């Protein structure tokens, strides 16, 4: 085909997008600023560099991470097979030798006849069909250009509260209500008495925090509006009770009186299967979040599908800006991929690049935009980041079973239930791929 697609950034997302385009006979210009210039987090010269953990999470099919990788292989992924070829022992997880993994991806990209790798930093959005996969540390002029086309829908810091599944809450201890009974009872309230609150406070102020990188320390000294809950707590024993845990306007159904403190949970998705802890953005280590936040009334056995984070992470307000095929609503020649879209995690970033690439292929062939079934992990994540319902309150999201539509049959065993989810997703994706294959050949 005569069309050439620009891909900016050779991380996981950019490599997936380039690969699937090239595999479909479309020429790609892949722009990568390394090794001429490195971001503050990158050190290795190869493509698809893993900058933090070398784990790509669980392998088992009845897990969200395992299902995501399985679906990606069905869709023609480059990074999942490369990861398996360079795996190291990690129990039930897929972990890799990060340099060998990077080398493997780099070798395949560099040697593909339809991919031209162009070195040097790109400082402006290119003409023609372009996939922007510049990563969570998009810098300088490019960030400014993205800001120009996205308006106020560009964020530079990820300050997000933990998210839990509704079904894991103890509904005998919590209750739906709005403050002063105004409007609909949309919030789940977790009331705490004085003894419970003080025990929670002591655990919180002594919990272990994530060590920030040098380039991440700046925002926390200036953004009072997104202060970590543990920093607020450190300012005095009652500060949380005048902040996100204020009890005014709430009646504890257990006592008929106002609680000493209350944690409110707000609906995270349209279906009401996920809720976030309002005002609980945090920089605690994940294990500490599980330990401390499980002390909150009703959250003793909570299933945390996303832990709170506060770190440098450039991302756009995708529900306002993107369609589910990862193209801009206002300019379908421009696609975004990777963490900049608000997907959280290595494989989630790679998945978004894969889908952006497939979408660009379909656009060039004159086919309808890609819209995968929402009972697949890939389809559910795509729907989440593009759902207008999330506009204005968007938080980055990784793969989790809570974003999949529920099944009609009640299954108590979580492993068995997630196995049913996985079987359903695979069959659904098979049917969709058969439909696409028929469409391509008709």
Descriptors for this entry?
442 residues; 6-stranded antiparallel beta sheet; globular; 17% strand; FAD/NAD(P)-binding domain; 16 strands; 5-stranded parallel beta sheet; alpha/beta; 12 helices
Task: Itemize the secondary structure elements and their pairings.
Elements: E1 4-8, H1 12-23, E2 27-32, E3 55-58, H2 64-75, H3 79-85, E4 87-88, E5 93-96, H4 98-110, E6 115-119, E7 130-132, H5 140-150, E8 154-160, E9 163-165, E10 175-177, E11 187-192, H6 194-205, H7 229-234, E12 261-267, E13 274-277, H8 286-293, E14 304-306, E15 309-316, H9 318-321, E16 334-336, H10 346-364, H11 377-386, H12 414-441
Parallel strand pairs: 1-2, 1-7, 2-6, 7-16
Antiparallel strand pairs: 3-5, 4-5, 8-15, 9-13, 9-14, 10-11, 11-12, 12-13
Helix pairs in contact: 1-10, 2-10, 2-12
Shape: globular
In the residues, how many domains can be counted? Answer: 2
Strand content: 15-25%
What is the end-to-end distance? 18 Å
Q: What does the radius of gyration come to?
A: 22 Å
Give the proportion of residues in helices. Answer: 25-40%
The strand order across the widest sheet is 10-11-12-13-9-14
| CATH fold annotation of the largest domain | FAD/NAD(P)-binding domain
CATH architecture of the largest domain: 3-Layer(bba) Sandwich
Just give the CATH class of the largest domain.
Alpha Beta
Number of helices: 12
Give, in order, the helices and strands.
EHEEHHEEHEEHEEEEHHEEHEEHEHHH
Largest sheet: 6 strands, antiparallel
* Structural class determined from secondary elements: alpha/beta
Average pLDDT metric: 89
Low-confidence stretches: 218-224
How many distinct beta strands?
Answer: 16
């Amino acid at each position: 085909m005569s069309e050439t697609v620009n891909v900016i950034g050779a991380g996981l997302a950019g490599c997936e997008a380039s690969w699937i385009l090239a595999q479909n006979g479309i020429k790609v210009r892949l722009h990568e600023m390394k090794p001429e210039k490195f971001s503050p987090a990158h050190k290795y010269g190869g493509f698809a560099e893993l900058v933090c953990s070398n784990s790509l999470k669980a392998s088992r099919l009845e897990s969200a991470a395992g299902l995501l990788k399985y679906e990606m292989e069905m869709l023609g992924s480059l990074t999942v097979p490369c990861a398996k070829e360079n795996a190291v022992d990690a129990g039930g997880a897929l972990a890799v030798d990060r340099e060998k993994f990077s080398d493997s991806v780099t070798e395949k990209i560099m040697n593909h006849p339809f991919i031209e790798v162009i070195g040097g930093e790109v400082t402006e959005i290119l003409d023609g069909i372009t996939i922007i996969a510049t990563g969570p540390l998009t810098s300088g002029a490019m960030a400014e250009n993205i800001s120009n086309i996205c308006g106020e829908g560009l964020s530079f810091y990820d300050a997000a509260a933990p998210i839990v599944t509704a079904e894991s809450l103890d509904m005998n201890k919590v209750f739906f209500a709005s403050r002063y009974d105004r409007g609909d009872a949309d919030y789940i309230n977790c009331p705490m008495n004085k003894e419970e609150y003080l025990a929670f406070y002591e655990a919180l102020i002594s919990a272990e925090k994530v060590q920030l990188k040098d380039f991440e320390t700046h925002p926390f000294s200036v953004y009072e509006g997104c202060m970590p809950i543990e920093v607020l707590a450190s300012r005095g024993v009652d500060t949380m009770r005048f902040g996100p845990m204020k009890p005014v306007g709430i009646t504890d159904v257990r006592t008929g009186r106002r609680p000493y403190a209350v944690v409110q949970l707000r609906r995270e998705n349209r279906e009401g299967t996920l809720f976030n802890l309002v005002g609980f953005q945090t920089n605690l280590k994940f294990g500490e979040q599980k330990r401390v936040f499980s002390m909150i009334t009703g959250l003793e056995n909570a299933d945390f599908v996303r832990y709170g984070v506060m770190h440098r992470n450039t991302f756009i307000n995708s529900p306002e800006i993107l369609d589910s095929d990862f193209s801009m609503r206002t300019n379908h020649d421009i696609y975004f991929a990777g963490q900049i879209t608000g997907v959280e995690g290595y494989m989630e970033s790679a998945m978004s690049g894969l889908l952006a690439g497939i979408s660009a292929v379909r656009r060039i062939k004159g086919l309808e935009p890609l819209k995968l079934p929402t009972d697949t992990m890939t389809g559910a994540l795509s729907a989440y980041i593009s759902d207008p319902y999330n506009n204005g309150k968007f938080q980055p999201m990784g793969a989790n079973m809570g974003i999949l539509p529920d099944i009609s049959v009640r299954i108590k065993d979580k492993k068995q239930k997630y196995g049913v989810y996985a079987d359903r997703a695979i069959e659904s994706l098979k049917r969709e791929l058969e439909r696409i294959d028929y469409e391509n050949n008709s």
